[in-house]
């Protein structure tokens, strides 16, 4: 099915090999979600560090580094929810913390 969406394949700009490996990749998309926000490279562009939580009236929106948006329920202080078998998000000390299945932050190993 043709959608008219235009995109680039992800391009890796930086890799820092270390115990806490860091990979920075970017890509561009004309999808409706991608063109709503500018993460520093212009509208439609996204990169691996562009994770964001947006508080909305009826819940939260989790923006991933690939430019996709996932609606999630509001969290009370101290509450956490599992987003997938390998990832959870918690509200702690007035902020949101994203962790992998080992309790680490994304990109931290």
UniProtKB/TrEMBL annotation:
InterPro entries: DUF6531. Residues 1-69 form the DUF6531 domain. Pfam families: DUF6531. This is DUF6531 domain-containing protein.
């Amino acid at each position: 099915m043709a959608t008219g969406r235009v995109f680039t394949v992800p391009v890796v700009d930086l890799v820092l090999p270390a115990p806490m490996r860091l990979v920075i990749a970017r890509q561009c998309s004309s999808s409706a979600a991608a063109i709503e926000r500018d993460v520093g490279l212009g509208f439609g562009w996204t990169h691996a560090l562009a994770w964001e939580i947006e508080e909305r009236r009826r819940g939260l929106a989790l923006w991933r580094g690939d430019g996709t948006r996932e609606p999630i329920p509001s969290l009370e202080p101290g509450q956490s929810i599992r987003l997938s078998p390998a990832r959870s998000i918690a509200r702690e000390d007035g902020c949101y913390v994203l962790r992998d299945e080992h309790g680490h932050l994304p990109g931290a190993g």
